[in-house]
Amino acid sequence: MLEGRRIVLGVAGGIAAYKAVEVCRRLVDGGAHVVPVLTRGARRFVGETTFSALASERARTSLFDDPDPIPHTRLGQSADLVLVAPATARVIGTYAAGISNDLLTATLLATEAPVVVCPAMHAEMWRHPAVQDNIATLRRRGVHVVEPEEGRLAGGDVGQGRLAEPATIVAAVESVLARGRDMAGLHVLVTAGGTREPIDPVRFIGNRSSGKQGHALAAEAAARGAKVTLVTTAALPVPPGADVVRVETAAEMDEAVRAVAPAADVIVMAAAVADFRPAAAATTKIKKDKGVPEIVLEPTVDILAGLGRTKRPDQTLVGFAAETEQLRQNAASKLVAKGADLIVANDVTAPGAGFEHDTNHVVILNADGTEREVPLADKRAVARAVFDAVLDGRS
Ligand code: PMT
Q1: Catalytic: 101?
Q2: Which of 64, 186, 256, 353 is the most exposed place for a label (fewest CB within 10 A)?
């Protein structure tokens, strides 16, 4: 897995920098071409000669003392993966803020390769909301985080903050490289967000879907090399590499989905589509002084069920089921009723899961009767698990 892969190993200034030496050795032993990049802080803990001796190229330390006038872009562009171990609070914060103030942070901003970040710091620093927010930001952008472990820290304190063991870090690198661009050649259609069904020009029937889960799915598929079309109601940033179609109502979403579906290999309906809409939206604002209005509802089109009826045998159709009770039973019924291959059962009452959160907790039910649970994790990690299940079913 590591054979011939070019890995930039970023080492930041923490007491755990000595463990990066072992990480470097294991990567080289596995056949990787390792280029170490040391921050000024790192060099206070471990000498660059050590890394130069063990790695595949000499250690780099500065944007300015390299014969190459733009070492960060060269390093970033040529890398198959950038690993930062240990990653200090400073490097994590600088990277999350998009600031380049040394060779390592410049390389992180200049790369489109997968990035694995292995934080190490004192337990209080790791728990600080600023650090946790920065980690959440990086995760949302698709950065892989190898969590620090519990144990003895510098100064004799004990808590979570120790750099993960070298074997764990190398295993994470191997797993990220294995996933690589495993969705290249697939066209993935994802829907996201809650639909809005107009009552009048200023009011609508809506729901609490933020679009975060759907956008995370689109970002994950694009990062894994798929061509992605995202049909969304959410005003969230466009995931890099995805084509976006903005819609508002269930009918508009249905039209946009049906236009793309025949060309799609994988369709994921993460959107919260309204089941009912006002039968006739008023053309002018309904006035309060006319009394309480009677709003007659009619069913909307069931987009997923329509896709299930017209599905090609080589297409993979994934639904979501937002449930508040009898999670597996209700989701399994929807899997069958809508003709999907997979359904992502989402208990939207579970802590930290469902609407609006950055995290989710789901069970992926397969039409073949198997299931896999994804414990509470950020929505990008849930997206990763959904596409792993999709690819398993297509292999
Ligand atoms: O957007 P977030 O804030 O990140 O929240 C994520 C989420 C909770 C919205 C998401 O994880 C989720 O569960 N999405 C499905 C919401 C939903 O509408 O569930 P449902 O059980 O009502 O619908 C079942 C399936 O049928 C869904 O795939 C839905 O897209 C589809 N459907 C529903 C109604 C309809 N008229 N047409 C449809 O295609």
Answers
A1: no
A2: 64
